[in-house]
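Data availability (excerpt). The following record was deposited with the supplementary files.
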Amino acid sequence: MKNYIVFDCYQTLIYKKDLERIVQKFLADEMRIKISLKYIKYAFDAIYHRYKFQHPRFESAQDRKEFYIKYNKELMGIIGVDVSSDFAGRLNQELGKLSSYTCYPDVIPALKYFKIQKKIPLSIIANWTETLEKILEDTNLRQYFNFVHSSHNLKLEKPNPEIFKKTLAEIIEKYDKVYYIGDDYELDIVPARQANLIPVLIDRNNRYPKNVDCIKIRNLNNLKKIVR
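Predicted structure:
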């Protein structure tokens, strides 16, 4: 049986460290406002869902700056704080300076298992800007993947199933099973299924019901029981 595994990236393999604590401290220092980490996490979850179908394509540094000013103003609005564009820009600088991408603890052991021990080829297809390759290098993940495709480079983005069909047509023909591992049902599971992949939902925070209509795992260690 010839298997091939394709991964999403953000919140599947990596995440941004300390986002909530940085926002909490910034609000306390700048505005003398105390907000619980739980509520800041809720705000990040809410704005993620607000923007997940509007993945940005930045043509310039100014585009990126303007996007994140708007994003952070809305984030603060969800928390219940009205802030200026200047404040939102300074918050973005603080987040960029102090928060970094890091792997979940199960990621590198799982990648080593599939890539080295099982000899299964691995790849990434993710909604991401032009920075994806560098971030994978910085987190010591790039070495595990045969190819890496970002929506920025493909000019396509999930949930359009063409993002998979465009990159995986030959692979689907050569392999018995092609799996796509992602953390979002609408962005990952639905289009992967439409592209004739086997979708696997990684639900680290148990956001989805037990009887969701796809394979569901809590961490990548569970993937060893599925891809054999």
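Summary of structural features: Strands lie at 3-7, 14-16, 101-103, 122-126, 147-150, 177-182, 198-202, 215-217.
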